[in-house]
Amino acid sequence: MTDGLQPEDGDLGQDAEIDQATVVNAIRECVEEFQLDLDGQVVVTGAGFGSEAITAIAAALAGARTVFALTAERKKHARSPATSWDALDLANHAGHSAQLKIMRRMHPHHWNEVDILVNCPRTRPISRTTAEFLRPHSVVALMAEPWELSPEMVDLHACSEMQVKVVAPNLEHPSINLLPDLARLCCRLLYDAGLSIRNTEIAVLCDTPCRRYIEDALIEQGARVTMLAHPQMLLPGMWDAVVVALRPAEKPSMDINGLARVFEAARGSLLVQFSGEIDRLAARYFGLRIWPPRKPGRGQLGVSPEILGWYPTIRRLVGGLKAAEMARRGADLGRDGIGFIVSP
Prior knowledge:
Helix content is 31%, strand content 15%. With 344 residues, it is of the alpha/beta class. α10 links the parallel β10 and β11 (289-291). It starts with 19 loop residues before the first helix and ends with a strand.
């Protein structure tokens, strides 16, 4: 691996267990930097390891009156590679456990108190039924831009009908600036696959805002890169790798037709799944080599974001809460701000 892909000095990487003091201090610093103020607000999120824990504690540190943290049985959440701490662990360490209410499910009367509902594994899907429970002018915090999410995760039409705002963080805002980190992740995935990027021919199928960042990152690593919006645009060539960096979709973005095109135009190349879905049964039919060998979860990246450390994730999550705070207070959110309102 080159030095450019190593976690930065002081970064919270996954190579060693991260102590709770380090992560709580990082969250506190980010809350202060973003001037996140949830004083008196009621927030619903998850209680699990990693990102859910960070969100819950960021809300508590920002002064939320109550953080309802939904959980399966304690210590049975999906564990993040670098953590053995969940929301309750961090809350105890930060001295904010009184604000945290661990619950298996939300009782109907609690929904009337909610100001911000965080989109996370324990709260999804945010369906029509959920939207009907929420009071008008409450906020659903996506914590990701819409292009990152599978369409069924949040019922935007129902939220609109119930006058519930849906807000997303702006990943290109200077305070969050996450897209270069995603591009670094894409490079890391290629290295993990055993590909020496320098002097390789790489086709990238990309229809997301990461497009120019991925292109720049690969060129910086010495690759010859061709960016394409659709697999049918792939021309025959001596491709070393075809990178799939597409939006999540209800049906695989790389279906049998797209994979047939890769087989015809890039036979013998490595198919790398960074984002978007691949019909792996069809890929096996064509005998395509694919990385990672284990299929990522629906809507997940082919490599854990934690591999670059927790700081990018903390910036994203605190930024998502800041956008939700502003929306809840009725602030004017433009597309160039830290977040924006999402319409059906």
